[in-house]
Amino acid sequence: MTTTASTASAAYWEPLWADGRQYRQLDEAEQRLMEEHLGPGRTRPALDIGSGAGALARHLHHELGYRTTGVDCSPSAIALATTHDTGPGPAWRCLDITAADLTALPDPAYAVITCRLVYRWMHDKAAFVDCVRQLLAPGGTFWVVTEITGRRTTTDPALQGLGITPADAELLTTGWSVVRTADLDVLRCYALRP
Residue 68: pLDDT band by 50, 70, 90 thresholds? Predict the structure, then answer.
């Protein structure tokens, strides 16, 4: 009997990053939305979950002024992220946020927690959102960027199904006092506040 690695685990992601797989780049439109919804960091702590090669964490750190930690479950992703640092930058941790001891993180709470192209891969989305709530500082923002199912212009059913369903979106947005959204082609950005 063959078992398939969880899409939220290092066993799934490590071979992809190790083989040099690249993912959607952070573009100017997305950067502008982050600036609008997250504001200046003023050295407050930020956590980028599923940081991959680190573009979003570096943007938070260098352009917006947050003191950023990027976490990813893939050692190859973290190694790639560190190669892009040319000076003092984000802190990097190889950590599976769904299974780790959260006291291993450098801060007990974060003014901003980001999750870009990661939420849809979480098997237990409710537990993941609860974990984020525990780490988010009062008045903080949870920034989620995710694909929405059915938005791709393709007839390939495998690609049409990539993204979150309306039920996943409802689970993500329930229980926040502020929910703001903005669309970028197949993606939706969520700014969620307690």
Answer: very high
Residue 85: its pLDDT value, please? 75
Q: Whole-model pTM?
A: 0.90
CB atoms within 10 A of CB 70: 30
- Tell me the torsion sign for CA atoms 106, 119, 174, 139: positive
Mean pLDDT along residues 27-51? 97
